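Researcher: I'd like a structural prediction for the single chain below. Treat it as a standalone chain; there are no partners to consider.
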Amino acid sequence: MTVNVPQWAPCAPLQPLRLGWLNSTGIEVAVLRLDLLDPLLSGNKWFKLLPHFQAAELAGSKGLISLGGPHSNHLHALAAAGQRFSFETVGLLRGEAQDTPTVRDLQAFGMHVHWLGYGGYRARHQADFWQPWLARYPHLYPVDEGGCSLAAAQACALIVEMAREQLPQLGWNDYDGWWLAAGTGTTLAGLVLAEGGQRMVHGALAVPVGHGVERNLAELLGAQAMTGYRLLDASRGGFARLDAELARFILATEAESGVPLESVYTAKALLALRTEVEAGYFARSTRLLFLHTGGLQGRRALAGQLQALAVS
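Model: Treating it as a single chain, here is the predicted structure.
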């Protein structure tokens, strides 16, 4: 059976973010809860995958093949979509075979998994990387790591529309900008394109400076590559690095706000926002939209470490 793009238009709620460190600042923050978009196809992944599904349908492909790590939100969403909408999925995973909650889900969703080792995964940027895999799976449509592409960025305009439609429910008639985590920069680029320079998009880097986001943004945004957004390092020394301060912040913020966080993207972005607010970067009466990009499935593997660090 070939890929058929589903007629599915999920919606995530826009909610006030109520936290003590915002109370006296005069700054209002609302969070677009993409983690509540769907139990499995949550976060920003649906928007980034949608144009790849459409391209696979046009190509007459029977499924999709892509890459990621053993905790990959991208592969998790792809595998879940394959199960739900009845198309084949193959995942090429970084490293040696290991058992993680994400990998178990991939297999339960029907994704066929191949482990590339670390050297094999580093080769993903080489021009001939896909050649042997497409010889083996000629009926599948290839998707680069994370689904990064201009079409994926443009699809994220739907996120902006979703938020704007809900502003009246907050009593807002406008907002001043966005705040979100940036892993590849694809979603950030999509918001920049959708805003067209009218509002600033603040990107809290989940990876250290110089690890690819800047290059991706230049490629995705073209002539707009230096306008409409601001990047700051929120990686805390490395991608997916979890420390005691971040662990305590996650648990305290969840208890106070009721919004669940994960340590790789959303929690680091929110902690970076607190730092900027406390430093006086934003004027009183500023209204920001904070994008919760989902990814909560990846938290399961770090649950024990999170608790241990929080009490250290």
